[in-house]
Design goal:
About 20% of the residues lie in helices and about 30% in strands. The protein is α+β, with helices and mostly antiparallel strands. It has two domains: about 80 residues; about 45 residues, no CATH class.
Amino acid sequence: MQVSSREHDLRVVWNQGAIPVFYRGGKGHPLKVRLPYAVDNRPWLASFGRRNPIRHKDEKYWELPTSWFNDLVNGALKRYGKVYIIQPFRMQEKCAPACWNATGHECQCSCMGQNHGVGDPGRRWFIVSETFATKWHDMELACRLLTKT
């Protein structure tokens, strides 16, 4: 099985040990957290809620309720100065039937002319009005690095 460069980059971030990593798997999935090793990791994590953190020793991460996310990120920024967040996202495109049916060359929507004058671009678009339509792409994972200011 071939791994994409994006998947490879996410694995590198997940497996590095210097900066905490928070993985949000989406609705219905617990928050997974990897922290640099410290003797007090369990009590520090437990200080953010009522439940006891679940440690997955073999995979080297902690499982926590997603409701702790914001407080944990703020706490980790105070404690470590940096935090990686890996989470799902879907890219959204915006365009409009007015663009698809245009006859001139001027295009002022976010498609940057890609859909300009093509007629009906297909069924994947959700048409809100003559001047606005949107299309969501498949779910992907994104990673961002937050730093304390």
